[in-house]
Amino acid sequence: MDANTTEADIQIEPRVAVVGLGGAGCNVVSTFYKALAPVDTIAINTDRKALDETAADKKIYICKAVTQGKGTNGDAGLGRKCAQVHETEIEKELIGYDIVFLITGLGGGTGTGATSEVAKICNRHDIMTFTIGINPFSFETSKIPVAREGLRHIRAVCPNTFTIENDKILQIMPNATMSEALNAVNKTIMPFVDETVAKIVSGIKSEIEMVQSKYTKRNSSGKMPEIRVRNGIRITT
Ligand SMILES: Nc1nc2c(ncn2[C@@H]2O[C@H](COP(=O)(O)OP(=O)(O)OP(=O)(O)O)[C@@H](O)[C@H]2O)c(=O)[nH]1
Ligand SMILES: [Mg+2]
Q1: Atom of ligand 1 nearest to the CA of 136
Q2: Distance 23 CA to ligand 1 centre (A)
Q3: In this structure, are residues 160 and 193 in contact, taking their beta carbons and an 8 Å threshold?
Q4: Atom of ligand 1 at shortest range from CA of 186
Q5: Which domains does the chain have, with CATH numbers?
Q6: How does pLDDT run along the chain (237 residues), one tens digit per residue?
Q7: Residue ranges of the Tubulin/FtsZ GTPase domain (predicted)?
Q8: Largest CB tally within 10 Å, which of 37, 42, 142, 170?
């Protein structure tokens, strides 16, 4: 990059993946599939049938040996274990991404347990990671403590964790069927991802422009110093 490089020459192209974990996460990922280019979609589930029905660029089936393909039946400890057993496979798929969004329905076993394990893998590779956890309906009373405990584990390894409430949709759409309510919640996640990525890109652009303008004020010729950007976002000129 030389001193004459202008804003228009810079393209920031973070490699972004949306990773759905468990039933809810995979349903959300299906809404993203081929809808938000160039975002890649990865689905992770212990439930073979649900995974087969998911639309995603990549599917990672965890873990036949532990759950026989039938899900964890609400056991977050099992969900965590399944992700650990498939750690190498998950890691291989995640390497190379700059930004990852983990999407999980809290209160079940697979998503609630596996998400913190996947977040740890992202952390090891300096991937900028966000988790969007969907809190269960308040009538799912047995899931609430599981959701709360799972969220605690997830927040400990992924500080950028946000929650959305299934309950809110019932307030807005009191006559909705269950599947309409779930779909409505699922659709709110895409604009969040889109806007977050746009903000990150524009933040990095401003950072680069600042460095450029400081540099060009001081030097009329010569090479620009190398610009180091956190989290390994790829910059092409
Ligand atoms: N918004 C939304 N919430 C969902 C959806 N499916 C399930 N949920 C919520 O997510 C919670 C967890 O459910 P699942 O995602 O099915 O659980 P899981 O991670 O597959 O875990 P196990 O099946 O127990 O192994 C449920 O209690 C629901 O509140 C969905 O498609 N959309
Ligand atoms: Mg499931």
Answers
A1: 29
A2: 5
A3: no
A4: 1
A5: 11-198 (3.40.50.1440)
A6: 444 444 446 778 899 999 999 999 999 999 999 898 789 999 999 999 999 999 999 999 998 887 788 899 999 999 999 999 999 999 999 999 999 999 999 999 999 999 999 999 999 999 999 999 999 999 999 999 999 999 999 999 999 999 999 999 988 888 999 999 999 999 999 999 999 999 999 988 888 888 777 777 666 555 555 555 555 555 554
A7: 15-204
A8: 42
